[in-house]
Amino acid sequence: MKTFASVLTFTLATSPAFAGDLITGLGVDDVFDQTDTETGALIIEYHADPFYSGQIASYSLAGAGQIDGDGDVFIGVGVSAIWSIGQGPWFVEGSFMPGYYDAGSGGSELGGNLQFRSLIGVGYKLANNSRISIAIDHKSNADIEDINPGSETLAVRYSFDF
């Protein structure tokens, strides 16, 4: 919990100095109930300005933090992408972030602290440089440990540029 609060504080404290996107999300962790610990989740992400931006897609370095009602914490860093759907406001988002996972008391034991989070979502660009989306992520240790139940989080996300 302290680590998540530290990352959130750092992100918010330094955000005026850096351009990018701040994403907040509310969702349900363990949504497919493989670990029998379904609970609410809070997600905070920072996506830096794109290192590549084309007509259809843009790619950015990103960081994410997630905490759920069981006290499970995930903090990861990786790459995010946004793909435009035609010329309209719809888009597809995705990311891949290796990171540190800690199972809270009564939380989801995922077989180790090193977890890989992949995310896919669909969203709508709003008029004020913000976006809303629905996304699902999957956290897994990629079978590098003997135990690997995986965990999914379904979330509604709000993103704004600054």
From TrEMBL:
For the keyword Signal, the answer is yes
For this UniProt record, the keywords arranged alphabetically read as follows: Signal
Highest taxon of source: Bacteria
Give one Pfam family.
Answer: PagL
Which Gene3D superfamilies does the protein's record reference? 2.40.160.20
What does UniProt give as the signal peptide span?
A: 1-19
Q: In its UniProt entry, what is this protein called?
A: Lipid A 3-O-deacylase (PagL)
Recorded source organism is Roseobacter cerasinus
